[in-house]
Amino acid sequence: MGIVSEEEAIDEFGKLIDKVEEEPLKTTFKNVHQGYMRETLIRFLKARDWNVIKAHSMLVECLRWRVDNDIDSILSKPIVPSELYRDLRDSQLIGLSGYTREGLPVFAIGVGLSTFDKASVHYYVQSHIQINEYRDRVLLPSVSKKNGRPITTCVKVLDMTGLKLSALSQIKLVTIMSTIDDLNYPEKTNTYYVVNAPYIFSACWKVVKPLLQERTRKKVHVLSGCGKDELLKIMDYTYLPHFCRRGSSGSSHHTQAVDCSSVDHPFHQQLYNYVKHHYETQGQAEPAKQGSFHVGFPEPVAERVEMAKTIESELLHKFENCSVGDRKASP
């Protein structure tokens, strides 16, 4: 197509999207771009290395996935009863700790201590997508308005505390959620900060890093210890995730940090009340116990499947060897 610059690619992509005439796709696209169409087109172009045809195909497939799975209504589908939602929050550790000085939301994720063992896969996927949609349709438009400029991405701080070999049993679920993100919420994370990394993570990272695309590798920053000193360069102390406040380095702060992944944290209270309110405005009574909101899982991209298999085989081999060595060394 003779595209020679990013501006031309954006322009050509926009013209192709304008030709989409199916009303359901046009409607759901509005929920995707939230008025920031240019930034949305750029995200999909980046995800496909600025190939307009591939980016167009990716976006159309994303819109069809949204329509086929009624994603536009997922923020009116509460996870009930409330005890089940509490169980999810106790086992799928994620929350909003605050914002960077540039206004980007900071999501804190307890990778090592998330067990994903309190409900079915569908509930965890439903919760994951609801957080994505709340971020994109409520949080980001709000902070964009507050800052007077488009803010369409976030920062994620990944806590590896407690990461164990048994986490391999969750690779399938994590692969499903990461594939959903890759295909339908591309380039929404500006930077990943990894903190409190134990030896097992270092072993994983050596396996994973060469398998990642360069664009993704550049986003991942493995910080020393709890990462506090580095993170304070981009956010205020009050917005540090609770797991990053260890090992004070000349700080006079002594306040106890709140675990933002807790169901009692304002973020999760606001999210849950938002979903419940939208359910009730449809004329429904208090939601009774119901099944999960089933979403069709896209086929994991080949690279992720291969990556998961490589991690599993490499680590099992590594730790089997360690166990054999330990037994030989025992008296």
TrEMBL record:
InterPro entries associated with the record: CRAL-TRIO_dom, CRAL-TRIO_dom_sf, CRAL/TRIO_N_dom, CRAL/TRIO_N_dom_sf
Gene3D superfamilies per record: CRAL-TRIO lipid binding domain (3.40.525.10)
Recorded superkingdom: Eukaryota
SMART domains per record: CRAL_TRIO_N, SEC14
UniProt-listed CDD domains: SEC14
Domain CRAL-TRIO: 81-241
PANTHER family to which the protein is assigned, alphabetical: CRAL-TRIO DOMAIN-CONTAINING PROTEIN (PTHR46226:SF9)
Name of this protein: CRAL-TRIO domain-containing protein
Originating species: Brassica carinata
